[in-house]
């Protein structure tokens, strides 16, 4: 190990070594890492330092502890573009991933006051309500709810199936193309039912996203709520000067 110095504690140096190994492919999903005692011997640090580094890696979703088995590298983080207005399916396919979707609820509902305001419709107006579980490479990634005024897409339920893109259906059958979005993100803890769907422990930290998607006219078409796994998803954007 390098000298601790004034700025970089040993545990952070050790954590960075493992993150670099994961990023450059020296460590892959499912690989078992050495025990805290072995790490202390390998890197000539105290067991407390090794334990602290592993705890930080676990907290940030790079490793997971399995009782009686050890500590293992978790799944590779999946990048989710927050700039381009694109369907989840196409976005993941463009990255060489295998996305899939399972419909949890598909029904008509009445707009409550908040949703009506966001969609610029009357309270009580009929909405198409769609709740889905998103997977990538067969790994649960996010729970997503979409709400759209039903008058914009009558009988849309006849076109929606598992693994069908909502945005593709809107464009192909209703001539609606979404070109702009607003998103608000915060950290949220998964409830028991959400944890079961996502395959994570109860109260796992997740990324909660509330969004609106707009047509070219500026009319809001969709209100969405997404709960994405904090241990797997990595959001990114590419801002540029005007």
Keywords:
242 residues; six-stranded antiparallel beta sheet; 27% helix
Quick rundown:
The chain has 7 helices and 10 strands. The chain has helices at 10-23, 36-43, 47-59, 88-94, 113-119, 166-174, 192-198, and strands at residues 63-66, 70-73, 78-81, 99-110, 126-136, 139-149, 178-189, 205-215, 220-229, 233-236.
What does this structure look like?
The protein has helices at residues 10-23, 36-43, 47-59, 88-94, 113-119, 166-174, 192-198, and strands at 63-66, 70-73, 78-81, 99-110, 126-136, 139-149, 178-189, 205-215, 220-229, 233-236. With 242 residues, it is an alpha+beta fold. It has a 6-stranded antiparallel β-sheet. It starts with 9 loop residues before the first helix and ends in a 6-residue tail after the last strand. The mean pLDDT is 88. The chain has 7 helices and 10 strands.
The number of helices is 7
How many strands appear in the DSSP assignment? 10
Shape estimate: elongated
Estimate the mean pLDDT confidence: 88
Describe the sheet with the most strands: 6 strands, antiparallel
Please report the distance between the alpha carbons of the first and last residues.
45 Å
Widest sheet: strand ordering: 4-5-6-9-8-7
Cα Rg: 22 Å
Order of helices and strands: HHHEEEHEHEEHEHEEE
The poorly predicted ranges are none
Q: Which class best fits the helix and strand makeup?
A: alpha+beta
- Helix % is 25-40%
Strand content: 25-35%
